[in-house]
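User: Sequence for DNA-binding HxlR family transcriptional regulator below. Tokens please.
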Amino acid sequence: MTHATGPGSYTGYCPQVQFAAELIGRRWTAAIIGVLTDLGHARFKDIRCRVPGLSDRLLADRLEELEGIGVVAQCPDAIGYSITEKGRELGPILCQLAAWSDRWSTELGDRPGRRAS
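Assistant: Structure tokens for DNA-binding HxlR family transcriptional regulator:
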């Protein structure tokens, strides 16, 4: 089922889009995917060090979730994690979200890194 009417368009409710938006919108998920997309693979501690404010517990939870849906895979040596093909395909989407945020966040009154009150 598709809800696109042409290139760059989207109409109506789509459960697949809702799932993807909620996945990316979970705290630190986009950052973890970004780190692994950038590095290809990384140890747990290296991911944590590249995402300021990310706790060990939350990183473990997010990696488990992302591994469960096939976005991240634990390396065969069990020392680190790698991004899968499915995860790499999120890279351009995250770049588009970043570009949108750069363009509109100040006009909307939000600043990256600032939490809503």
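The chain has six helices and three strands.
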